[in-house]
Write a structure and sequence with these properties.
By secondary structure, the chain is α+β, with helices and mostly antiparallel strands. The chain is built from 17 helices and eleven strands. The chain has helices spanning 2-7, 28-36, 50-57, 70-76, 107-115, 149-159, 165-193, 200-210, 216-232, 236-243, 249-259, 276-286, 294-310, 327-333, 335-346, 352-373, 439-445; strands at residues 9-11, 61-67, 78-81, 90-97, 103-105, 126-133, 141-143, 389-391, 399-407, 413-419, 422-427. Strands 2, 4, 5, 6, 8, 9 and 10 form a seven-stranded antiparallel sheet that branches. A hairpin with a 5-residue loop joins strand 4 (90-97) and strand 5 (103-105). The longest helix is centred in the middle third of the chain and has 29 residues, at 165-193. The protein is globular and about 65 Å long. The protein starts with a helix and ends in a 7-residue tail after the last helix.
Length: 452
């Protein structure tokens, strides 16, 4: 179990060395070296990234957490974890203590504070300051949710009998259909990852056209463009944040909210699908001059990410094809992708709000066990060390203190009232269902089935 979780984490103290499929033109280590050579590549290292440095130091860590459940926290004395990019952590962003007791938010936190009155998902939220004292240095190992496919697949096999036979058949058949519809573009991705080249404009347009039927690609697409923006931006704001050891999160936040109208209600990256012209317009609006080399970057980077997060190490990216692949082939040859797709498909069934804990708590328990074994009190989103930092609610050796906070001059936070609450290893209830627009799901369910 711990081996799978280890493969789903990126250690920023050393170049990545995961098992990879054959036939690729580059390794993860090659890409890591290339990314470090970008204008802001020093932020991928412990010595250049303030968040990584604080985790490695082992001293007290201060995090901003926004909650809409302050009364429940006060009455129960409990801070609950949530699912998402950190599986089962209490989501937050770093705070830097300043003389006099104020705390300066990381730019991710500043964005969350600035946007909380405008976004439905953040409205009426209260900022909390959480101090975590882990007592020892932690490894700079961040969780990469794009590499959780094997864990999703194992969880599905363990708990699939919570589904009715009809639901299980619907989930499997729907995933197979999605793969068959998307197969031409999925094969294009493997072609590019193994040395082929497709025209940039047609590649991105095909990508955008495939995302609605294959939403997992929206996650890869968004993370690729976000990585490019954060590493290649040279704006004054980016330089100021980089001087503090922070990646500029406002770049990809602006991208997401501009590209998808409904992001302010539910931050669903499966909806991220701008075509070539729209993508260039969005990026040019964010920072003039960044768009020129983006399409080539997206083609190469996304193709590599797809191949390495989809194929089993025993496969060859230059020879495998998704054409007419059935469930057995997908389970054997692309188990990580199969797991990602099953996980996302299960979340679309009508009964998922009732089944949520059956599937999610199992993964959270494993994550907490892994983090405890690795002495990780504050896990972080390791797709990029951009500042999304959480709290392991099952960590037994850390001390915690919680305060409500108010924003003051210059955007600083000031602790106001200490709250008698501690993190506990339980997940919050399923909250997404009332926010989710099911139009695309319903349209897919009414589709014509793909012939065998």
């Amino acid at each position: 179990m711990h081996t799978e979780w280890d493969l789903a984490h990126t250690d920023y103290s050393t170049p990545p060395d995961r098992p990879m499929p054959a036939g690729l033109t580059g390794t993860d280590a090659d890409w890591h070296q290339r990314l470090e050579q970008a204008p802001n590549g020093h932020l991928l290292r412990e010595g250049g990234n303030a968040m990584l440095g604080s985790l490695a130091a082992g001293g007290p860590i201060h995090l901003l957490h926004l909650t809409r459940s302050l009364d429940a926290i006060r009455s129960s004395g409990q801070l609950l974890a949530s699912t998402g990019c950190l599986v089962g952590a209490i989501y937050g962003s770093p705070l830097t203590p300043l003389p006099g007791g104020a705390l300066r938010p990381h730019n991710l936190g500043s964005h969350l504070l600035d946007a909380r009155h405008a976004l439905a998902s953040r409205r009426d939220s209260t900022p909390l300051v959480i101090q975590v004292t882990p007592g020892r240095p932690a490894p700079t190992k961040g969780l990469d949710y794009l590499r959780l496919g094997g864990i999703h697949l194992r969880t599905y096999h363990a708990y699939r009998h919570f589904l009715t036979p009809a639901e299980d058949d619907q989930v499997v058949r729907s995933v197979v259909d999605r793969v068959r519809v998307a197969a031409p573009f999925l094969d294009t991705l493997l072609h590019n990852a193994s040395g082929g080249t497709t025209p940039e404009e047609s590649f991105i347009n095909a990508l955008a056209a495939t995302v609605p039927v294959f939403p997992y690609l929206g996650y890869l697409y968004f993370e690729t463009v976000a990585e490019y923006l954060m590493l290649h931006s040279t704006s004054p704001a980016t330089k100021e944040y980089a001087h503090r050891g922070e990646m500029n999160n406002r770049l990809y936040k602006e991208l997401a909210f501009s590209a998808v109208q409904s992001m302010g209600i539910l931050f669903d990256l499966g909806c991220f699908d701008p075509g070539y012209t729209r993508l260039l317009e969005l990026v040019e609006r964010i920072e003039a001059g960044l768009a020129s080399t983006l399409p080539r970057y997206v083609r190469h980077r996304l193709s590599h990410l797809f191949a390495t997060t989809a194929l089993a190490p025993s496969q060859d990216a230059s020879t495998f094809t998704f054409h007419r692949a059935g469930s057995d082939t997908l389970a054997d040859s692309v188990p990580h992708l199969w797991g990602q797709l099953l996980f996302r498909e299960i979340r679309t069934i009508d009964r998922y709000p009732q089944l949520y804990h059956c599937f999610e708590q199992a993964k959270a328990l494993e994550a907490w066990s892994y983090w405890n074994a690795e002495r990780i009190a504050t896990p972080f989103n390791g797709v990029s060390p951009k500042g999304e930092t959480g709290i392991n609610p099952a960590y037994s050796d850390a001390a915690f203190a919680v305060w409500t906070a108010e924003a003051g001059d210059r955007g600083l936070l000031h602790p106001v009232e200490q709250v008698a609450a501690v993190p506990v290893p339980r997940l919050v209830p399923w909250l997404v269902a009332p926010l989710r627009d099911r139009t695309a799901e319903e349209r897919w369910m009414k589709r014509h089935l793909v012939p065998e």
